[in-house]
């Protein structure tokens, strides 16, 4: 088997002012990151994650490599947040798929609630298990999947990249088959439309990755577009793996840098909308950010006082 066509699309949606999602669609790596944090910190976090994965992926394959790439991305975001008080508490989800054509497998690594789906033989399967408050409540039997869909805290995630020095990454591998279609998406898709609607868009797009990506983003916006929505789609086809040079990116394709989409407009600072759950459904990230600002102000005041005293 080998990878065939691929497509990726990101959209701000109908409610948000900024797009804090980022993606990678650069064989053999396909990934989505959904950032969170005040001001533009969410964008910074998701961009850092996408860039870190893409820069370090060359020559790497397998689950251990995916986990290591994600941990490196975590480290980069965490250190950036420590160095920049305005970015304190920022974080991002990441879901990354790394295709090993020779082995016929796809290694998946993820943190947060961005999802990977597989469409095979006309059926849709969710490959990743969300690291979210409602998903945990559903898994423990305290919430039904239907209640989870309407839950006011359905966007609260329980694991994120960049909020702590270490991160636990879930990894697994899928044996790929020709005809498989893989989707990676942010919760702006999966929280707006149900799985059966995702499948019907895939079916109606006749397996064209471009058509699927456009159709899914449109469907999410038609359903309200309450969040940024990002979809990365690729297909697996029959055939021998391509040689290295043959697999080189098409010069007409957008560059990786261009593919990492960031809203250009600078909007006024907004409160974080996707706090990480730390000790309950509270806003751990917000307190951390507030604490950092207070500390920074105190330090600045002391410095000025010390300067004047001299
Ligand atoms: Mg989102």
Bound molecules: magnesium ion
Give the CATH topology of the largest domain.
Phosphatase 2c, domain 1
Order of helices and strands: EEEHHEEEEEHHEEHHHEHH
Regions with little confidence, pLDDT below 50 for 5+ residues: 255-284
Descriptive report:
The chain starts with a strand and ends with a helix. It is built from nine helices and eleven strands. Strands 2, 3, 4, 5, 6 and 9 form a six-stranded antiparallel β-sheet that branches. Strands 1-11-10-7-8 form a five-stranded antiparallel β-sheet. It has 310 residues and is α+β, with helices and mostly antiparallel strands. It folds into two domains: 2-279, PPM-type phosphatase domain (Phosphatase 2c, domain 1), CATH 3.60.40.10; 283-310. Magnesium ion binds next to helix 5.
Task: Looking at this protein, list some descriptive labels.
310 residues, alpha+beta, Phosphatase 2c, domain 1, 5-stranded antiparallel beta sheet, 9 helices, 35% helix, globular, binds magnesium ion
List the helices and strands and how they pair.
Blueprint (H helix, E strand, L loop, with lengths): L1 E10 L9 E6 L2 E8 L4 H16 L6 H21 L7 E2 L1 E7 L4 E7 L3 E6 L2 E4 L6 H7 L5 H6 L19 E6 L5 E5 L1 H4 L4 H10 L4 H14 L6 E9 L18 H4 L24 H26 L1
Antiparallel strand pairs: 1-11, 2-3, 3-4, 3-5, 5-6, 6-9, 7-8, 7-10, 10-11
Bound molecules: magnesium ion (MG).
């Amino acid at each position: 088997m080998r990878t065939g066509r691929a497509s990726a699309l990101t959209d701000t949606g109908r409610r948000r002012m900024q797009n804090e999602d980022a993606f990678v669609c650069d064989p053999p790596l396909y990934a989505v990151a959904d950032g969170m944090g005040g001001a533009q910190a969410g964008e910074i976090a998701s961009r850092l994650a996408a860039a870190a994965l893409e820069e370090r992926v060359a020559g790497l394959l397998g689950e251990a490599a995916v986990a290591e790439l994600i941990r490196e991305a975590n480290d980069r975001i965490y250190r950036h947040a420590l160095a920049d008080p305005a970015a304190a508490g920022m974080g991002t989800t990441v879901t990354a798929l790394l295709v090993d054509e020779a082995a016929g497998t796809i290694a998946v690594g993820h943190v947060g609630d961005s999802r990977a789906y597989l469409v095979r033989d006309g059926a849709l399967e969710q490959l990743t298990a969300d690291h979210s408050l409602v998903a945990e409540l559903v898994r423990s039997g305290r919430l039904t999947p239907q209640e989870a869909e309407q839950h006011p805290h359905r966007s609260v995630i329980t694991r994120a990249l960049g909020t702590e020095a270490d991160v636990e990454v879930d990894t697994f591998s899928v044996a790929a088959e020709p005809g498989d279609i893989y989707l990676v998406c942010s919760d702006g898709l999966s929280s707006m439309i149900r799985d059966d609607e995702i499948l019907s868009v895939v079916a109606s797009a006749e397996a064209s990755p471009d058509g699927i990506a456009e159709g899914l983003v449109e469907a999410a916006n038609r359903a309200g577009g309450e969040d940024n929505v990002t979809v990365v789609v690729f297909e697996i086809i029959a055939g021998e793996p391509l040689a290295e040079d043959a697999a080189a990116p098409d010069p007409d394709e957008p560059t990786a840098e261009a593919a990492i989409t960031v809203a250009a407009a600078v909007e006024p600072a907004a409160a974080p909308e996707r706090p990480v759950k730390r000790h309950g459904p509270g806003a751990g990230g917000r307190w951390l950010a507030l604490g950092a600002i207070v500390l920074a102000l105190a330090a600045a005041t002391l410095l000025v006082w010390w300067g004047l005293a001299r």
